[in-house]
Amino acid sequence: MRVRFGLCIAAVGTSMAGGAHAATFSVTTTGDAGAGSLRDAITQANAAAGPHTINLTATGAISLATALPNIAQATKIVGPGAANLSVRGKTGGRFTVFVVAAAVEISGVTIAGGDGDRAGGIEVRSGSLSLSDSVLADNAADMGSAIYASAPLTITRTNISGNKGGNAAIYALNTATITDSVISDNATTAIVFPPAARVLTIDRCTLSGNNGARGVGGLQLQGGTAVVTNSTFSGNIGRLGGDFWTYSDGVTFQLLNVTAIGGSAPSVLADHAATFSLRNTILSGTGDRCRVARMNITTKGHNLSSDATCQLADATDKPSTAPMAGDLADNGGLTKTHALLAGSPAINAGDNASLPATDQRGRARISGAAVDIGAYEVQEDVDAGTDADAGTGTDTDAGTDAGSDAGLDASFDAGPRDAGADAGGGGGDDGCDMAPGRGGGGTGAAASALVLGFLFARRRRVTGWRS
After folding, report:
1. How far apart are CA 130 and CA 107, in angstroms?
2. Residue among 292, 225, 288 at smallest CA distance from 260
3. How far, in Å, CA of 117 to CA of 3, rounded?
4. Domain Right handed beta helix spans what residues (predicted)?
């Protein structure tokens, strides 16, 4: 394929302004090599300065026999939708599906079956990665089974589920922002964030059902700052705890309108000289919700915990209080949440200062007299009579939202790799010094079946989420 400089610059529009050699390439076949293949498009894009666009018009599965070329020029890869195209590593192979070494955007694809040293699905070596409307499933690695990022990372409207082994599904060594996404049912910790003087931002996300065999299931903060807003942690388990771990001295956790329910005890493992602050946050489950040593938890008020272990001493806090929340479910929005049931002590009990405009679902905050505690805001004057906001315990929104998030939140079949991941995941106390074992299975046909329901566009109609 020839690079048609003049015509292609016009085709990509203003986003390519200033790129004298910018070109657009089309991937028209699911073949691994040859004209019209993804491998050929990346090779051609690497041959000239970008930014380039690679449009994936083929549908089905691109099964890689060997590693793709590293993406070495600024490139936007646009897929036809995660339900329509997957890019898969080789069964029994040992390579990462995508290696990023420039400013790269990837959207609308499923990335599965990768098995690398540092990353299974995507390694971001340099440049940056913006990943959206995609799925990463059934990948494995020694460090980040889905993603290992040494450079800035942005994840939006993406499902990262059913990945196995490594220290985490996402291992981020630089600034990272994750929005409107699901990280669920991974046989490893959901996120490990080690870099000092960097910030991890999590907004309107659900982290659920992750199993950190050597640490916690949710978020292990080894450096820098984690700012978590309007997000749900549910049913995460680990050898040392469920949701949050201040792994290193000097790290800072900031939780605002977060709901953490169920999973292993403690939900919060605060065992270093670190800062852990929370406001408008729910911590609920069986056993100690917090285990604190060498530090104190900083309450900024209006928090609710099912026991008295979290040092909630502000007059507005509600220790030893059940939140009265429903099960994790599709309550509208892009991600599953725990709806507050009628009579919940979290309703109208939060602090209205410095809030995001919406809750996790994209619904307006401060529907009643005050903001609700947690990620879910009861819509007292909108959904009355139809959902948990009116006390039924199930948000149906008169049928407009029910079930339409199934593709985003459904978990992937763990597949044959699980045995190795679980068997090898028991050793080590620090949660990061050695990689767990991995089984040798294939890419997992179940991943293909799941992503057939993964259609983000349907959610634009009522929830008001921001693109």
Report:
1. 8
2. 288
3. 34
4. 104-233
> Does 309 fall in a domain?
no
Residue 341, domain member (yes or no) = no
Q: Residue 125 CB: number of other CB atoms within 10 A?
A: 19
| pTM of the predicted structure, to 2 decimals | 0.82
Q: What is the domain range of residue 68? A: 5-249+406-451
Q: Residue 348 is encoded by which pair of tokens?
A: 């109208």
Count of domains forming the chain: 1
Place of tokens 């699980």: 418
The answer to whether the beta carbons of residues 400 and 462 sit under 8 Å apart is: yes
With CA atoms as reference, report the closest residue to 121 among 77, 72, 170, 157: 170
Digit-coded pLDDT (tens) for 340-393? 999 999 999 999 999 999 999 999 999 999 999 999 999 976 544 334 443 333
- What is the CA angle 403-267-173, rounded to 5? 85
pLDDT in tens, 85-134: 999 998 778 999 999 999 999 999 999 999 999 999 999 999 999 999 99
Q: Tokens 């690695």 label which residue? A: 141
Asked whether residue 432 is domain-assigned, the answer is: yes
Question: 292 lies in a domain?
Answer: no
- How far apart, in whole angstroms, are the C-alpha atoms of residue 116 and residue 197? 28
Q: Are 100 and 76 in contact (CB under 8 A)?
A: no
